[in-house]
Structure formats: C-alpha cells, structure tokens
Design goal:
The chain has 225 residues and is α/β, with parallel strands linked by helices. Helix content is 41%, strand content 20%. It folds into two domains: 118 residues, Response regulator (Rossmann fold, 3-Layer(aba) Sandwich); 95 residues, Arc Repressor Mutant, subunit A, CATH 1.10.10. The strands form three sheets. A five-stranded parallel sheet has the order 2-1-3-4-5, with helices on both faces. Helix 2 packs parallel to helix 3 and helix 6 crosses helix 8. It starts with a strand and ends with a strand.
C-alpha cells in the first residue's frame, strides 16, 4: 500500500515515516500543499494524509481541490486544533477522517487500516497463490501453514506479486510500487531483495524460482500447488 503524507513538520514527518514503514506501507513525503497536488497527479496512492496548516496551499483547500477534480482516494486530515469547527470544515471539504496532534500512533494506524479497507472493498481479504497465503490485515505470510518471517521490503514485494498473479512486472514497476520516490534503489538492490525473498520461500518448501525471471522484461509468479 502506498501513502502520501503532506506535512511540513519535519520531526513529525520523520516519525510517521519510520512508523508506517515498519507497518509495511510505502510512504512518500512532501512538505507543502502545492507539492502534494503535483504528487497525486503522477503517482497512484491508496491513501493521502494532509496536515491542515501547510504552506502555499493548506490541507483543507487541497482536499477541496482534489475532490473537485474527482479524486476518490481516501483522505485523512491531521489537525493541530481539536475543535468542532476544524473537524466540520475538514469533513465538508471531502476528508474521510481526521486525527488531532499530538498524534496518537496506535489510533492513527487503526484509522489508516479502516480507510484502506474502505477504499479497497473489492480486494480479497487474504491473498493466495496455491498454498502460499498473505493476510494484509495481519501482515502474516505462510506456505502450507508454515509462517514466513519477511522484512518490510520482502513483504511489499510478495504482496505486489500476489496482487498481480501471472502478470510480468518490470523493475521500474516494482520500484514505483515498493520504494519511496525520494529513495529509488539501484537495479542490483531490487535483485538482492528478490533473491532474499526467493530463498525464504524455498526454505519453507515452495518450488525453486516461484518468482520467475522473464529475461530482459521483469518478474512474475510461477504457478504452485
């Protein structure tokens, strides 16, 4: 899942980036409303988080602009003031939910999960490829009931492959979905993460190269039992 955070408080942005990355989300961060507006036009996000008090274009006005252009992705506002007026203005602007600073992290994560479920009601609750299962709600991965312990990047890679089945994914597509735009990896880094994921899958009994390399094109899943 890819999230855009529009927040000019550097300390808060860094704290949220660390917390959300630990939860297997890919997070892009920009620090003003106009930059947020530009970002949503070039990247598909599953959730947008907007601080209300932003330079150049505040969060409520950005939310209104997004909705007026037909942008339907869930929007979560972050407000510094716990007043009914701010909440009403935000919800009237088209926001789906809000949190109040100082941000309570467990509450924020719960609200994010709720919004992502709401925005992806057509997605299966558990992703499955043969006996390989990934539960997005609990971040649990197993093969024939044997659990796999994956790093956040390995988890994101496997989730991407499971959501695309036999579709061939190029390295550029993988980078766009799994890595932040601020820190794109080298091709060798992508290869290293896929190699590590393959080794962990093989260790629990999946066939060799369940993630196939399609020469000069990319990668895809091989059918397994």
């Amino acid at each position: 899942m890819r999230i855009l955070l529009v927040e000019d408080d550097v300390q808060l942005a860094e704290a949220l980036e660390e917390a959300l990355t630990d939860q297997r989300y890919v997070l892009d961060v920009v620090n003003d409303g106009e930059a947020g507006w530009g970002q949503v036009k070039v990247v598909d996000y599953d959730l947008v988080m907007l601080d209300v008090m932003l330079p150049r274009l505040n969060g409520i006005n950005l939310c209104q602009r997004l909705r007026s252009h037909g942008y339907s992705t869930p929007i979560l506002l972050i407000t510094a003031r716990d007043t009914s007026t701010d909440k009403v203005n935000g919800l009237d602007a088209g926001a789906d939910d809000y949190v109040v600073k100082p941000v309570d992290l467990p509450e924020l994560l719960a609200r994010i999960r709720a919004l992502l479920r709401r925005g992806n009601t057509s997605s299966p609750p558990v992703l499955q490829w043969g006996s390989l299962k990934l539960d997005p709600s609990s971040y649990e991965v197993s093969y024939r009931d044997q659990p796999l312990r994956l790093t956040p990047k390995e988890y994101s890679l496997l989730e991407l492959f499971l959501r695309n089945g036999r579709r061939v994914l190029s390295r550029s597509m993988i980078i766009d979905h799994v890595w932040s735009f601020e820190a794109p990896p080298s091709p060798d880094t992508v290869k290293a993460h896929i190699k590590s994921l393959r080794q962990k899958l093989k260790a629990v009994g999946t066939p060799d190269d369940v993630i196939e390399t399609i020469h000069s094109i990319g990668y895809r899943l091989k059918q397994i039992s």
